Amino acid sequence: MHGTPATPGAQSSGSRPSATPAEMLTAMDHTIATHLLSQQEMARRLNLNVTDLTCFAYVLEAGEELLTAGDLAERAHVTTGAVTGILNRLERAGYITRRPDPNDRRRVRVAAEPSAVARAHALYGPYYARLAALIADYSPEEVAVLSDWFTRQGRLAREYMDEIRDTDA
Question: CA–CA separation, 159 vs 145, rounded Å?
Fold first, then answer.
């Protein structure tokens, strides 16, 4: 965590309060902590653990472009052995099915079960509606900046995670 004490920023001339980089990092730390707690609660309500919920979210995000187990392992930053256990649990819980890959008989593709999609949407729908309302408060230019920042920060976080994992080897 960043750990820098927050100093209230002065109001900018526009409709947004100003913020120092330290204030932004503190706000990010708080958002991440809240998000982690929220994901734990969402996973609990869906009778999953957070890693399985994350993998299920990747399956949902892929939509009709079904992922392979290897794709899922790469996105979730887990081994193919670990993803096998995750898929086994998700399949037993009725969240996914495995389908043969039409192009490679050695591989399977992962599809979301419609009833599980409905359960996830029922839980996440109200939250995403609130997020959509919040996003609507921002100009298209501001949304573009936020999207760019999240994309770049996510890449940086993944690269750093890989870096520190490599030190374990």
Answer: 21
